[in-house]
Amino acid sequence: MSKLHITVNDKPYDLDIPESRTLAQVLRYDLGLTGTKIGCEEAECGLCTVLVNNTPVDSCIYPAFKAQGAAITTIEGLARGEELHPLQRAFVEHGAVQCGFCTPGMIITAKALLDSIPNPSDHEIKVALKDTLCRCTGYTSIIHAVHSAASELRGEGAIPWQPRETITPLNAVGRPVPPQEVVDKVTGRARFADDYVFPGMLIGRTLRAAHPHARITRLDTSKAKALPGVRAVLTHEDVPGKNIHGLVFADWPVLCADKVRYMGDAVAIVAADDADTAARALELIEVDYEPLTVVGDPEFAHSPAAPLVHEGWETGNLLKHIKVRSGDIEQGFAEADVIIEREYRTPTIEHAFMEPECAIGVPAGYDAEHPKLTIYVGSQIPYDDRRQTAIALGLPEDQIRVRGTLIGGGFGGKEDIAGQIHVAMLAQALGRPVKMLYTRQESLLFHPKRHATIIRIRTGAKRDGTLTAVQATLYGDAGAYASLSDKVMTRATTHATGPYVVPHAKIDCYAMYTNNPPSGAFRGFGVTQSAFAVEQNMDLLAEALGMDPLELRRKNAQRVGATTATGQLLRESVGLLQTIDHIERDMRGGDPAFRWSWREGDKAYAWGIACAYKNTGLGGGAPDRAAAEVEVFADSSAEVRTSSADMGQGLSVVLVQVTAEELGMPVERVRVLLSDTDLTPDGGPTTASRQTYVSGNAARHAAITMREALAAVAAERLSVAPEQIRFEGGTLRADGSVVAIGEVVGWMREQGQEAKVRYVYDAPKTQPLGTGGDMHFAFSYATQAALVEVDLGTGAVKVLKIIAANDVGRAINPKTLEGQVEGGIVMGLGNCLTEEYIVEDGVPWSTLFARYRIPSIKHTPEIVSHFVEEQVSTGPFGAKGVGEITSINTTPAIANAIYNATGVRVYRIPVDQDALLRALKAGATEVHATWHDVK
Amino acid sequence: MSLWTHYHTPATVDEALTLLAGYQGRARVIAGGTDLLLDIRHGHTPRPDALVDITRISGIATLRQDGDVMALGAGVTHAQIVAEPVLSARATCLVESCGVVGGPQVRNVGTIGGNVAHALPAGDGTTSLVALDAEADVVLDGVRQWLPLRALFVGPGQSRLDQTRDLLVGFRFRLCGPREGSAFKRIMRPQGVALPILGCAAWVRLDESGARYDDLRICIGPVSKVPSRAEAVEETLRGTTVGAEAVERAVSVARETLRPRTSKFRATAEYRQEMVEVLLRRVLPLAAERARTGEAIPEGVGME
Predict the structure, then answer these.
(1) Judged by CB atoms within 8 Å, which residues 7-36 of A form the interface with B?
(2) How far is CA A389 from CA A517, A677, B291, in A?
(3) Which listed site, A80, A429, A779, B185, has its alpha carbon 20 to 30 Å from B209?
(4) Does the pTM of the predicted model rise above 0.95?
(5) Which fold has domain B7-56?
């Protein structure tokens, strides 16, 4: 222990702390200033940025004693009391905050910029923020926010947010209402799981497998248990209930007993007094393995030579064979004048949500607030966490409470169990709270990812461009455990026709168990992969037919009255043609001189386009249910509750707007409470772009029922007919009377009635694949155009501009919707150009954030976006899903643009400049290699 | 797991050396730590008992111009170099190379001494210092001495400095004078580790007429195990007329004499060979132009 003298946010400190501390640790754990986040501990993500003597540094690798005598500024030091700093205000105003986990680092980094450059250019903003990563926003709103704050700080006034064109807004719906948690997110007050601390809390860690596929022959924890400071070391023998979990199939051991199936498998868990002791304990656990042949890819998995990943699975390594059959495929190709057949490959993709997984278990009876076993976690499916934990702990579900914290990004990656069961086990075993925070490196190793796929696709068309048939075979790498593979690969299969009318289709998908990290849900849910193949085949067809790519798509576009390949008649809300119109107008603009491609010096430029569609909701016959509760209080405020999750996508404000609209209340008077299995009803999983629709509907119907009850009571008191009562501005008005809504609540209570309504919403019934009819209750549609620049000297690809049009049914909140569009596009750009999670024979190479690049602000293209609002009659105010559609067609649009620029088509992503350049030099027209092959 | 136990901030070179000696190999020198701490975390460097932070040694974090000679303390950060107008004008390649290291947070902390001590065959700052023919002020085996920078490197990631007892104190080099100019560019890929596929720094002096190359120094990396000069390319250009023809001659000599290798998940040898040529075509004319006009505005700082 030594003395550290520092000033933090103008307050001097004299700390007696170990010399081994980093600055981030001092701020977060010694001073409790948890606004500073830790995202990677590799100096890659910039989330931990603080100012040391006004200079931004990564505090996660900054030794605390390096700062001896220095003045530190953290996010907590920006606001003056309740008065936000102009940057904080601007981030709120411009929708530059989604999950909020990067926000403190982003604002602090931007502050240093504005301190030195009062009027920065876009370029200067990008230089300053280049190493401060955000996975949600796509950065465009951040650039706007920094300009706005700069302007305000110069005394020229803030720059207001610019609305997009939408249909006429209602009182609350259709307006850019800020989410209630946004102010906490810009001030650093927002609490994510690792920001919670309980007295006596221990630190948990997990011992992961040493091989991708091996039998465990011996497991000895005695040395670890003997280490002072170690409180528990648990193995499979200590799982109180069933040693298995899983979202769809229970195939995933809580702690491995006989064998390990991937490098992220958990073999033992420890709880210790501090992180160092826990880490040392892991090193002392002895495990002997008998390595088995590794099933490293889905094609090998399907071969007779491959050993079984799960010995008990009926169909061997074949997790699921998914089929789409429509019409007569032979006839379809017989009718075709042109047939294009190609093979595409997409890699494993990592969510890279900015907040690594963290869970805290608090034992039953720990204090008055925790009478039952409680798990704090940022989860996309709190009730399923509770279900799976109950099974593993052998407890009834009602003896467990899952309390959702804020979620620092999810994108599908926080649906599966991470540390939830483990912390519950340790907490129950020890009677003390236990926190398990995964390092970024552990997060990379452990959690399910986007499926790598191999897609062979054959598309046939008549001479006039009419599609006749699509035949496709997809292989999906499901990895070691089922997770949501069944569902994800079904979506890849059913969407493999693209958003087009295809009379004859035969599509087969094989989801294969392997010894790679499991694959699961990831924004786009399989459609991201099939769109890469479908949309490039469409461009190949257009070229073979001598047709314009937009025209070919327009000709075949799904429209009202069309039937999908799964046999679904589209009766309404099919806005694909309108999205094509927007792209046509913005890209070509009637300019007779429009060129798809051109060259300037050693640079080639071109446009490329792609369309997409994506279902809203679970579909396929799965009951799609969400419950919500609305309560109105005597102070004329209301609260809407559901367990559905807001991971930054903006559900919370959607629920507020829908509720406020139906109750005629100001949005500021409506609160939202999410993700608590004791206090909020089950909203189901936050997945499949479903929550605005299902929880939105549940909240809406709860609010309507509430309104009717209020009206009935008020009508009696005021002696008017209930239908004469109008709900406006938080009041009930009728016949000259104006009564505050809270007063009516009082009347209800006097009559012994609760002003609280719970509504369980069941979405329209859907049909399982293969049975025809409505497989989904709504689809969203999109078209994008990408303008790229290819450096003909280096092969480097840069995306300069994206034009996007998305049919979302109804823009409930145009500002958060804009964020979904911009963020989705940049995530799609990463999928195409920067990202690949590399696994070599079951052993991940991408185990560091430094080895997995997500787009930074320097990749952000100019984005022009349009909303198409083809309302779906069953959606809340006509809305359908938006979370995924925004991201799906960016990759094929860029790939098509690269072909148009260079004459070389990329059949694999991420696009490899090395291979692209070599193809250019060799006069080749195809690239099938990627940087993964550079060895 | 904490990465070190004790942390020292000596005020003089002697104090630093005494501390290091006292730990008998269990202490390591740290400057910015942006590379070192990650190496320790990932197990590439053994976990030290103590870190000896040299950045508070008097004078080690300062730039000092003495006529045409620039002296940089080893603790000078990349950000300090980028912000120094004299370097922008008269050691442009160094600003261009230090300006593309990491992001602002890393440049604010990471030092030029750390970059050199890391001894990567394509360390950005190192590549430019080699082209500027810098010398290093070091304490080796207890003896303080000036060495040509190139003499420090032994192999990839290895220098003659023993980080548990030796010290890199600073650098000096001659600033560009009349008819002299320099430039640096590098090729990156957007995937994977942020190490350059190839970097190239060139320093050029033109003759009195301004039409011929009087002298050149070209450093391209990684093409060998240590940062090295493309001497055959330099030789072929000396005394020849500046222009596209000369550049193409340089390219053809480079093709014959430089044999870059394939590095896993970074670049194929074939691609690197192409990039040697692309960089020579982009860097040589830029350096010559700067020498001719005497004006230089660094390019690509903060973004490449």
Answers:
(1) 18-21
(2) 22, 13, 70
(3) B185
(4) yes
(5) 3.30.43
